[in-house]
Amino acid sequence: MSTTGAHVPDDRGGGRARPGPWWWPRRRSLVLDATLAAVSALECFVEGVSFAEKTGIEPGIGAVFGLLVGASLLFRRRWPIAIVLIAIAVTPAQLGFLLGIVGLYTLAASEVPRRITATLAGMTGVGTMIVAFIQMRASLRQDSDTPMPVIVITSVLMALGLTAPPVLLGLYVRARRRLVESLRERADGLERELTLLAEKATERAERARSDERTRIAREMHDVVAHRVSLMVVHAAALKAVALKDPEKASASAELLGDMGRQALNELRQMLGVLRTAQVVNGAGTGSTLAFTELGSGNASGAARTAGHSDGAGSGPQAGARQPDGPCLAELEALVEESRAAGMRVELTVEGEVRSCEDQVERTAYRVVQEALTNVHKHAPGAGAEVRLAYREAEVAVRVENGPSDGSPAAALPSGGHGLVGMKERVTALGGGFVAGHTESGGFRVSAMIPALPVVAVPTGPPAAG
């Protein structure tokens, strides 16, 4: 980029061509400028010889001068202002007709400030008008009938005809080029934004997959850990009484089988939520209907599956609200399982018992379940107290156990994910979770979960009026 002008890119063709040498953007631009310079040099050569003959100068000098002036058009893209100044300088000699027109077009189409373009265009127009006026007056000097205003108007029209069209065309090309560049920049910006959006979408999808894996792992832990822990405890008790008390051993074995079946049913129910099937509607238009199988195997699972039963008993009455997963109504059965395993558990319910949102009841149930599982693992022989409180805008649960009585602990593995899972469940609903040792040497788990009562919507037929 020079100080006297701006580089003018070739506005023809939207594709990316092979770059040209020096200041030419493409090789075909070099060919175009070389052709224009050759034509301009030939024109100025002829006009220089004619001007030398009229002024008495050596024709060879005029020819060389004309060649140099015409060939300067080769540098129009590099120094457009200089080319126009040369055209203005040789206007009195009546040289550079093509040089002036192409120079004005290049100047107007370049990035030179418009005030400079207007000034040089005005100088070119004034110079052309003066030269035309002198030439017409000299040629019509002997014709006294030609009025002066006609000569003036003709000179002005000639100046405008040689100056205005190239300037206007150059300004149009300049505006068009800027518009194309702005559109290209906007397209590039949109492409970058789309790329960023795609990256963010990928990150959100990956984060969603990670959250889903965490949720599945938490559900698996809650379902498997409690049931399997009780099964291990009962298996140890069964081994101890197998020979001494066969009847008690038989009852323990039956209870052990029931717990295994319950664990399998819960696993089937949870895995069924993750399994998506496609059913083709053969009686209609043949469209594909995607649905989620909610699983079956126990009474609650069969009741939650719309229109499907696996023979485990009929569901509740039609129109009644069915919980999604374990609920607080099953808390008494959960406590009885721990009592059957030999733990002293006391359940206390405070406040007015009501139905809450499924995720609230499920979270409270899982907190109690995991807390009792931890008592089986880490405090064998200890008693536990389970407290459930229904408050105005929340449900609170607390599970507290005393110290172990020294009974041998069952060999139950512990991954340390129980407390983390409980806290994640509670905080995800905007609640508070606290767990820690008590002064008596036991352990306490407390959770407060925001909850609003669920309003039952009647689904039966309206009463006859």
Describe the structure concisely.
56% of the residues lie in helices and 10% in strands. By secondary structure, it is an alpha+beta fold.
Structure description:
The structure is a single chain. The protein has 465 residues and is of the alpha+beta class. Helices cover 56% and strands 10% of the residues. It is built from eleven helices and seven strands. The model is unreliable at 1-17 and 276-321 (pLDDT under 50).
Layout of SSEs?
Layout: H1 27-55, H2 59-71, H3 80-89, H4 97-109, H5 114-139, H6 148-241, H7 246-274, E1 276-280, E2 288-292, H8 299-304, H9 331-340, E3 345-350, H10 358-378, E4 384-390, E5 394-401, H11 418-428, E6 432-437, E7 443-450
Parallel strand pairs: 3-4
Antiparallel strand pairs: 1-2, 4-5, 5-7, 6-7
